[in-house]
Queue: 3 jobs
Job 1
Amino acid sequence: MQINREKTWEAELAESFRDSAELCRYLHLPDSVRQNDLAATAEYPLLVPRSFANRMEPGNPNDPLLLQVLPQRQETESVDGFTTDPVGEHQHWAGTPCRVLQKYPGRALILAADACAVHCRFCFRRYFSGKKADVSLETIRNSPEIHEVIFSGGDPLLLPDMELRELLYYTAMIPHVKRVRIHSRLPIAIPSRITSELIDTLSRFSPIYLVLHVNHPNELNDEVLERIESLVDVGVPVMSQTVLLRGINDNLETLRNLFEKLIDSRIIPYYLHQLDRVSGAAHFEVASDVGRALIAELRNLLPGYAVPQYVQEIVGAPGKRPL
C-alpha cells in the first residue's frame, strides 16, 4: 500500500476540534446544539479529529458519531451506580508508578500513554488521574507467570514510531512473554496513523494483536479500511471491540452492518461491551436484556466468527463476564 504523506497524523491531531461550538458550526448545526453544557466540557474537554468529524452527517444533531463525542448536559447528573472508577482500577494504579496493572491470570496491562486522539464521552478512564511515570518493564521481567502484555492507555499508538518500536523490542526480549496486544482507537479516529513505519514495526514483533475500538459502521470509511487492511496484509491480526451505546448502535441493523463490514475487511469482532458505569455516561446505557436479545438475533443472521462475545467488566472478577 502507498501511504499518503501529504499530512502527518501528528499534524492532523494538532488540528483537532477542541471547542464544541466550532465543531457544530463546521457541521452546520443549530445554536440549540452548540449550547452544550460547559461544566461537562470543563470536566472532560472535547477533542475530535477533523478526519473523524468528516464522517459525520452535516445538519444532523443525532449523528451517531457526533453523539459519541459531543458533551451533553446529562454528563453532569449524578446517577446511582455510576462512579468515577467503574472497573476498580484507581487503587491499583496508585500503587504502581511503573504503570503496570495485573487484573487477570497470565496477563498484565501497561498504561503506555496518558492521552487519546478522540474523547469519547463514555470513556471508563475519563477520570483517571494517575501519577505520570515512565513505562517500566521490570515488573513484567520479574513475573514469569505473565505470558501476555496488553498496551493500553490513553492510546498507545500516540507514542512516536521509534518509541513504540523500542517498547515492543524490549518486551520481545522477555522470554516468558509470548504475546502482545495493543488496544487503540487512533486508526479509527485518524487513519493516517497507520504509517509505513508503523506497519513495519507491528509486523516485526510477531505475534502482536491489534484491537481496534469501533462502535458504528459509519466510522469505517474507505480510507480507514484500506489502512487497516494494509496491516492485515503483512500478517498482523486485527480484532475489534465495541461498546453497546443507547441511540448509537443499540439496534440490529447497525450492529449487523458493523460486524459484516468488519469481517469483510478481515477484522474479527472480538468483544461487544456492556457499558462500564462511569459517572457522566448513564444516558448511554442499554439494558443487558436488550444486548442479549441483539446478540441472539445476530447469531441467527451472521456466521459465528462475525458475532463478538457480549461481556461485562466486573470489579474483582478474574476475567470479563460473558452476558
Job 2
Amino acid sequence: MRLSRHEWDGRDPAALAQRLRSAVSAPAELSGEVAETIARVRAGGDAALIELSERFDGVRPSSLRVDPALSAGALAGLEPELRESLELAAANIGAVAEAQLEDGSAEIDVNLAQGQRVKQRRLAVGAAGIYAPGGRAAYPSSVLMCAIPARAAGVTRLALASPPGEDGLPQPLILAAAALCGIDEVYAAGGAQAIAALALGTETIAAVDVVAGPGNRYVAEAKRQLAGTVGIDSLAGPSELMAILGDDADLDWAALDICAQAEHGGESPLIACAVEAELLERLEQAVTRIAAQRPSVAEAELALVQAPDTDAAIELANAFAPEHLQLMCADAELLAKRVRSAGCVFCGNEAATAFGDYVAGSNHVLPTAGAGRFSGPLGPATFQRRMALVSLPAAAARSLAPHVERLARAEGFPVHGESASARSGAREDESGS
C-alpha cells in the first residue's frame, strides 16, 4: 500500500480533493486505440469481433452466441450455498429496484390554465446490453446489479457480453447469474470490442439501446466514444473508498475495508480521514499488516488526512465525491444527512462497503472520479426514458398563439409563429383563400 500523509487546516476542501485525486496516476491515453477497435467492429461485424477476442482475450470463440442451456446448466451446477447467496442478493436488489419504481409516477398528467394538457410517460428502452468483466475474476454480482433493475424497469430484451475463457465461453458463474436473472442472450465477447458490438450491432448481435455495467479503462473509453449512439449508465472508473473515522471506529475493520477496495487494483483512490493523528497512525499499522498478509491486495494509494474537525471531514467528502463513503463514527446516520456528494454512504462500524458490493440490496454500479456531484447509482431509471404528449384544444391554441408568435419572432424564427397562429384562426391565410 502506498501511503501519503496530509495535515489539513480545514480550508478549501475542493483544493485538497483535487490534490488527492491527482495523486492517483492518470490512465494512459486510450482514445486512439479504442477508436480503432470500434471502427473495426463497425466495419467487420462478427469477423472483426472474433479477431479482436483472439487478440485481446487470447481465445477465438467458436460461437459468439452462448447456448442458453449452458447458462441454465451453470446455475443448476452451483454449490447449494453459493446459489442461496446469489438468490439472496438477487432478491434484495430486486426489492430495492421495485421500491424505486413505486416511489415515482409512471405518468404525469397536467392540465394548464390556458386549456392545454401535458403528459409525460415513463417508458422502458427496448433492449439493454449488460457488460460483465472477466479476466482474473468472475463478477456475477455485476450481472445481478444491472439485469435486475433493467427487468424492473420493463426492458424486454437483455443481452449480456462477457469475455471468453480458454474454453471460448464466459465464466460459469457469469452464466449462472445470467440464468438466474433470465437474460435473453449471452455473448462471448469482452473489452472495448464488446461495447462496440452491443452499441453498433453485428451479424450475430443486434444493437441495444443502453449499455450498462462496469469494466476496465478500455470499456469506459468505448462507452465514452459511443455515448450518443447508445445510452450508457456512466463512465465508471477505478473503485474508490473514503472513510471518516471517529474515536469509536474499529480500526481493524476499517483497515480490512480499505484493503478490500484495494483488491480492485492499484488505480483505486483510498482515503482515511480523522481528527486525531493517533487514529491515523494506528490505522496505518493495521493496513500495512493486513495488506502484507493478503496477496490479492494491490499497491493502491492510501491518503491519510488529519482534519481539524468532523465538519471539515464531511466537507472534504462533499468536495471529493467518493464512490463509497464510510462514516465510522458516532451519529453516523445524522452526519449522513449532511453528505451531498457520494455514490453510496455506509453508516456505522457494521456497514462495510463489501455488503453493498454484494447483498445489501443497494447497487454497486456507482459514479466515480467525482461524478457523484451530478449522478447516482445505477437503477431502473438508467433503462427508462420519458416521452411527452401534448394536446391543445382550439381555445388553448387561440390563447397561446400570440405568445408563440412574439417569442418566435424575437428569436428569428417567424414561421414558428405562423405555424402556431394558423391553428388559432388569429391570422388570415396569406394566400387569400
Job 3
Amino acid sequence: MRPLSHFALKDRANIRGLFFDIDDTLTTDGKLTADAYAAMWRAKAAGLMQIAITGRPAGWCDHIARMWPGDAVVGENGALYFRYDTAVKKLERCYVTDAAMRRTNRTRLDVIATQILREVPGSAMATDQAYREADIAIDYCEDVTRLPVKSVL
C-alpha cells in the first residue's frame, strides 16, 4: 500500500472518487478522528466522490449518509446502500432484495443465529444487531471476551 503522494501527478488528476472501509481503515482504534473527518471534508471540497463500505448495520448507515460528507454508504456487507439527497433533504435507501425477501431471510437468519449462539459458547449477538435489516452479526471479540480462533472457525 502506498500513499497517493507516490503516484504521479498526472495519475492523481484522474481520480474521481474514493471507496473506503470504515473500521480501522478510516477510523483509528474504533474512533473517527478529527483528522480523518477533516480529510473527508477536504476530499468533498476537491470534488471527489466518496463511498464508505462497511459491514456495520443500516442504523449506522442512516447516520453516516445523513451526517458525513460522503456521497453514499454501502452497509451490512453489501446488502444495502444509503445516500442522502441534499437537494430534496431525503435519505434514499436501496436494498439488494425487496422487503418480502428481507422478512423471509430474517426468519432464516434468526434460526442460524440461535444455532451459532448455542454451538459457540461465549459468543453473543452483536450489540448493534437491533439496527440491522438484512444480516446478523455475532460478537466473538468486541463486547464479549475474545474467543480463541479455533472456537469461531
